[in-house]
Amino acid sequence: MARKGENIFKRKDGRWEARYIKEHKNGKAIYGFVFGKSYSEAKEKKTAALAVLMAKPKLSGAQTTMKEIGSQWLTELEPICKASTIAKYGNQLELHIIPYFGDKYIHEITNEDMITFRNRLLTKKNLSLKSTSDILSRIKSIRRFALIHGYEINFIPECMAIPQKTEKIRVLTFSEEMSLLEYLRIHPNLTNLGILLCLFTGIRIGELCALMWNDISLDARELHIRRTMQRIQNRDKNAAHKTYINIDQPKSQCSIRTIPIPSNIMDSLQSAYSKDAYLLTGHSRLFVEPRTMENRFKTILKNCGIRNASFHVCRHTFATRCVEAGFDVKSLSEILGHANVNITLNRYVHPTMELKHENMKKLSKLFEVK
Question: How high is the pLDDT of residue 45?
Answer without folding.
Answer: 86
